[in-house]
Amino acid sequence: MRKVILALAVILFAGVVAFWVTRRCLAPSTPVSWLCREYGLPASEEEKLRDLERSYGSRCGPYCDAMCDANARLETLTLGSGSMTPEIRAAVAETDRIRTETRIAMLEHFYAVADQLPPDKRRDYLRKVLPLVIDSCGRR
Amino acid sequence: MNPDQQLSSLLREWKEVPETTSAFRRDVWGKIDARRRVSRTEGWFSLLAVPRFAIAASAIAVFAGMVAGNLQARSAGEALYLRSVDPLSLHTHGR
Predict the structure, then answer these.
(1) Any residues with CB less than 8 A from the CB of B46 and at least 6 apart, and which?
(2) Is 0.90 topped by the overall pTM?
């Protein structure tokens, strides 16, 4: 019985170690490295994708702050009023405008990235990222 | 006299079969069932005491661990990428 328990412990240990080592070795260090591995891109493409990501970050970053400011303003107006006012309407429209601009920037970036991928993998990439921009509630 | 002959002569002498109560029968069958269950479980596990089976089971465990680790790394990478390109989620959850 002792032999069996020992064997069982060794087997479990081997499985856990294999899981841990594989996960550690294959876990991507950056989002771009995951993209390259997932879509089988050569190392030469990695720098191009990094550039795209940098330019996207500098475009989209300000939208984050603008969205927070617009939402904070909307919250203040909503809490300070007992009914719908033209200012609240304008503040709601402003948050939507920023959101729309962000979504357009995201779509432009996704198309630019898809353009770097092998043609047969573009659709798969777009399928993965589009739910971030378009929520079709599974109706497509 | 060999054991078979001894048993035969004993059986010849045996005249009366005692009556068994239902509780006695239940107990006997209960014990038989319990012993069967234990020996079936032990049967599977006792295979691990054989080095050949233990090595095979270890190889299967290593393979399963590698497959699971690979799937986990891929899904973690995908989540990392999606978070990195989603300013809307950063805005919603990060603040």
Answers:
(1) A4
(2) no
